[in-house]
Write a structure and sequence with these properties.
Bound molecules: S-adenosyl-L-homocysteine
Radius of gyration: 22 Å
Strand content: 15-25%
Shape: elongated
Helix content: 25-40%
Structural class: alpha/beta
CATH class of the largest domain: Alpha Beta
Number of strands: 10
Distance between the termini: 51 Å
CATH architecture of the largest domain: 3-Layer(aba) Sandwich
Order of helices and strands: EHEEEHEHEEHEHHEEHHH
CATH superfamily of the largest domain: SPOUT methyltransferase, trefoil knot domain
Strand order of the largest sheet: 2-1-6-5-8
Largest sheet: 5 strands, parallel
CATH topology of the largest domain: Alpha/beta knot
C-alpha cells in the first residue's frame, strides 16, 4: 500500500480535497494511507517556535534545520525506503513521469515549507528532493502536497474505475488530449463535430490524434519539440 506522510505546520489542511471523490474513497478503502506530522511538536521551547530570522538579514523567517530534522527522523527512520520530498518553487518541476514513478513506489514523505523557506542544511543532510508544482509562489507547501498526492493516488491500482483512462490522458502520450463532447447534440447553435457521431471508429481515432497534435503544437511548443523521437520521425517521414 502507498503510504504518504506529510510534515506540516497545518495538519488540519489534510486530507482536505483528498478526503473526497476518487482519492477520498480510495483512502477509506485502504488503498493508500495518509499520516500528518505537526512540525511544531518537535520544537523544544516554551513558545513552540519553529522559525527564526534569516542569516545574512532580509525579510521573512526561515524554518529551522534542527526542528525539521527531528520531525523528519521521527516520520522517516533511516531504513525508510520512501523518497523524501520537499515542496519548493526551486524544485524540479513535477511531471506525469515522476508522478507515475512515485505511484509505483512504497509511498512518499512530503515536507511542506512555509515562510521564506527551509534552512538549506536540513535539505542537504536529509537528502530532500525538491519538487515544484509550477513557476509561481504559493504561501505554503500544503496546496502543493495536495496536488502531488492527488496526481499520484489516482494512478494507484484499484483507484480509477476505468483503468484505460489512466494511460490515454494528456502527458502520458507526450501530447495534450483532444477535445471532448457529449449530449446535447446542439448547444447554443453549435453541433458536435460530425466525425464523432459518424460511428466510424478509425476516422474518430484519426480525428482525435490530429486534434491532439494540433493543440500540442500550438499551445505547447515545448512538449511538441520534446515528443518521442520515433513520433517525430513518423511525422517527418515522406508520404509514399
Ligand atoms: N521565498 C521562496 C518562496 C517561499 S513560499 C522563494 O522565493 O523561492 C513558502 C513555501 O511554499 C515554500 O517553502 C514551499 O514549500 C511552498 N511553495 C511555494 N511555491 C511553491 C511551488 N511552486 N511548488 C511547490 N511548493 C511551493
Amino acid at each position: 500500500m502507498f503510504r504518504a506522510t506529510v510534515l506540516t505546520l497545518y495538519p488540519e489542511m489534510f486530507p482536505g480535497a483528498l478526503g473526497h471523490s476518487l482519492a477520498g474513497r480510495a483512502l477509506s478503502d485502504g488503498l493508500w494511507s495518509l499520516q500528518t506530522i505537526q512540525i511544531r511538536d518537535f520544537s523544544t521551547d516554551r513558545h513552540r517556535t519553529v522559525d527564526d530570522t534569516p542569516a545574512g538579514g532580509g525579510a521573512g523567517m526561515v524554518l529551522r534545520a534542527d526542528i525539521l530534522a527531528r520531525a523528519i527522523d521521527h516520520a522517516s527512520p533511516a531504513n525508510d525506503r520512501r523518497p523524501r520530498l520537499l515542496m519548493s518553487p526551486r524544485g524540479t518541476p513535477l511531471t506525469q513521469a515522476r508522478v507515475r514513478s512515485l505511484a509505483e513506489g512504497p509511498g512518499a514523505v512530503v515536507v511542506c515549507g512555509r515562510f521564506e523557506g527551509v534552512d538549506q542544511r536540513v535539505i542537504d543532510a536529509r537528502g530532500l528532493e525538491e519538487v515544484s508544482i509550477g513557476d509561481y509562489i504559493l504561501s505554503g507547501g500544503e496546496p502543493a502536497a495536495l496536488v502531488l498526492l492527488d496526481a499520484v493516488v489516482r494512478l494507484l491500482p484499484g483507484v480509477m474505475g476505468n483503468q484505460a483512462s489512466g494511460s490515454e490522458e494528456s502527458f502520458e502520450t507526450g501530447l495534450l488530449e483532444h477535445p471532448h463532447y457529449t449530449r446535447p447534440t446542439q448547444f447554443e447553435g453549435s453541433p458536435i463535430p460530425e466525425v464523432l457521431v459518424s460511428g466510424n471508429h478509425a476516422k474518430i481515432a484519426a480525428w482525435r490524434r490530429q486534434e491532439s497534435e494540433r493543440l500540442t503544437a500550438t499551445r505547447r511548443p515545448d512538449l511538441w519539440a520534446a515528443r518521442p523521437l520515433d513520433a517525430q520521425a513518423k511525422k517527418r517521414a515522406p508520404k509514399a
